[in-house]
Amino acid sequence: MINIIKEIYQLYLFYCRTPVESKSIVFYSEHEGYYPYYEGLINELISNRDIKICYVSSDINDPIFKNTSENISTFYIKWLLTIFMQFVNCKVLIMTLPDLNNYHLKKSIFTVHYIYIFHSLVSIHMMYRLKAFDHYDTIFCAGPHHFNEIRERENLYGLNKKELVKVGYYRLERIFDQYQNYKNYAPHQNYLKTILIAPSWGNENLLKTCGTELIQELIRLDYSVIVRPHPETLKRDPQLIDNIIKTFYENKLFKIETSVHSDDSIIKS
C-alpha cells in the first residue's frame, strides 16, 4: 500500500507539477540495466542541446536517480505503469521495450510519437515476437540488418512505413572508449586471466545448462571468473543464481555481478 501511495504521488508530480516544456521528451526504462543504451542520446539532449527531458524508471536502483542535471526530471513508476502509459501526454516517448500495445502496456489515448532504441544487436525476426515493433513510429536502428529486416516486414505485411534512423550502437562505442583508457592507464601487472560468463536468458541459457560445471572447471584452471546473469534470469530463476552463489561464494576466483549497468567486467575480461 505504501508503494502504491508513493507511485500515486509520482504520477501527481509528473502530470500536475512538471511543466509541459519539461516533459516533451520522455524516456521509459524497465530496469537499471537499460540506462547505458539511452546514455549517449540523453547526454546529447541535456548537455549539448540544453533540452529538458523526463525519465521514468520501474527500477528504484536505476542510476538515473543519482543524476543531478537540472535538465532531467526523474520518476519511479512500476505498479501503476499501465495507468501512466495510457494517459501520458508528451510529444515523444522513447523506450527499449518491445511489444508495445500488444499486451498490457498500451499506447496513450493522446497523440504520442513512439521511438524504439535497441538494447540488443540481434535480428528482429530471430529473438523477438512477430509484432514486437509494429506499433512504434520510429526505430533507431543499431545496424543495417535492423533497417533491412523492418522494411522487409513492412513490405510483406502491408504495414505503414516507420521512420528508420541509422544511429549505430552507443554502448559498443562506450565499451570501446573505456577499453582504450583501460589499456593506456591501467597498471601493467600480471593479472590472472579473467573470464566473463554473461549469457542471455531462457531455459537453454548457459548458466542453466552447465553453469556450475563450467565455473568449476575454469576455477580449476586458475582463471578468475565473473558471472553476470541476465536481468531476466535474476527475475525468473533466482534459485539458480542462489545455488551458484552458495557453491562458490568462498572462492576468491569467483565473483557474481548482478547489475548490467557497468562495463567494468567486460573491460577486465
Describe the protein's architecture and organization.
With 269 residues, the chain is an alpha/beta fold. It contains ten helices and ten strands. The strands form two sheets. A seven-stranded parallel beta sheet has the order 3-2-1-4-5-6-7, sandwiched between helices. A three-stranded parallel beta sheet has the order 8-9-10. Helix 7 packs parallel to helix 9. The model has no long low-confidence stretch (mean pLDDT 93).
Distance between the termini: 44 Å
Global geometry: globular
Low-confidence stretches: none
Series of secondary-structure elements, N-terminal to C-terminal: HEHEEHEEHEHEHEHEHHEH
> What composes the largest sheet?
7 strands, parallel
Q: Total helix count?
A: 10
Radius of gyration: 21 Å
Helix/strand class: alpha/beta
Q: Can you count the beta strands? A: 10
Spatial order of strands in the largest sheet: 3-2-1-4-5-6-7
TL;DR of this structure?
The chain is built from ten helices and ten strands.
Features:
single chain, three-stranded parallel sheet, 10 helices, 269 residues, 40% helix
How are the elements arranged and paired?
Elements: H1 2-17, E1 25-29, H2 35-48, E2 53-57, E3 72-76, H3 81-87, E4 92-95, E5 113-117, H4 124-127, E6 138-141, H5 144-157, E7 163-166, H6 170-185, E8 194-197, H7 206-220, E9 224-227, H8 231-236, H9 238-248, E10 254-256, H10 264-268
Parallel strand pairs: 1-2, 1-4, 2-3, 4-5, 5-6, 6-7, 8-9, 9-10
Helix pairs in contact: 7-9
